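Question (not urgent): is this output format expected?
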Amino acid sequence: MAGAGENIDPEAFSSIPPELQEELKAALEKGDLVAAVSKAQEVLCSADKVDLNIAITGITGSGKSSFVNAMRGVEDGDKDAAATGVTETTSKPARFPHPQYPNVIFWDLPGIGTQTFQADTYLQQVSFDRYDFFIIISGTRFREYDIKLAREIQRLGKCFYFVRSKKPSASRPLQYAEDVILNKIRDNCMENLQKGKVDFRQVFLVSNWCTSKYDFPRLQETLVHELPSYKRLAFLRSLPNLAKEILEEKKKYLMKQVWLTSLASLGASALPLPGFSTVCDVALLMSALKQYCQDFGLDSNSLEKIASLTNKPVEELRAVIKSPLAHEITKDLVIKLLSKTVGGGVKYTLLFKNILPVVRPVIGSVVSGTISCATSYILLKGFLNAVADDAMSVLEKALEGGGGATTARISTSARLAQSVEHGTLNPRVVGSSPTLGECFSSLFPLPFP
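Got this back:
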């Protein structure tokens, strides 16, 4: 089809692995429906197979394992959690796949600076080439070993990020504004790194127990934006839905793939929709809707976990959700939603020019194909908007009241009592929700190192 390539938006291909981009573009430009649909299905399947390997390193006792657990959305001590302790618990790189997205793998590396792992041989010992990027964690100040490691990672051409992590410790009354304390701690870390003459842009100040606070969301956003575009979706899907910014990024990125799913729904498994001149792969659409629910935490397991983390009854979280949960997505429901979409009286052949310019060269001359693809597109886009809104409502309900317990990963009175017994948490939080100020004060007490 002459000139078809002019209708293809390059941005629509940004989330596709490079080796598949050209093949899909070629099929679209030729107007080859069968090849384009087949390639779209291949692209969607490949998205679940893109491995992302994240290395977490630092000196012994810096909180590496707790950070791994926080990034995976599991609690210290859970069955599949990374072992934690003040002494080195990792003797070799330990592999921890994300519980829901196993292609996203966090590697808890041995602590650097021990007799076994020295800076000059460390990267070779831990299989440097395996990892997409490195996160260097310190629980106090960044030391010589951290700086040497960063220099070597940079020399070998990979990215690294400095993270200052703090464990709960004996708190003192909050005497200064939180932003003042954060800035002083961050400035202290940056000054120390500058003295070591290491090239870096920023230090992220995080708490493994308050993952929606401080620099944790900003760290996650930075990692998303600096990953290769075709690996971003894998990482975004793995992030806990505990920050507004993350929810917005997920929605934005998933929207970019709606056209691909719409095109793929015209494959060989597509069946006529009773009473309409529309064919769709209902099983594929059902899978896509379920995946949207899981990506935004609208499934039973995710809701129960958020309820546990935030001390909110799960019923309160469910009450603000208008969309069906993942387990409620059935073939009959998808057919019902498709029927409502077709029955809306939309003039698909006109609307198609505006909403699906990427695939119009392929099926623009086929009326039934136009209606079918546009119907799937409108269904997917509407459902994605709905679940994203519901996820935001769940987050707002979880954070309602502003208590520190709504953001802390320390979620049970038993764990709080245990922390007090060991002198590691302010006794005032036991039996009630600590304020954000108390949470902050216990995590980042003055004076800083």
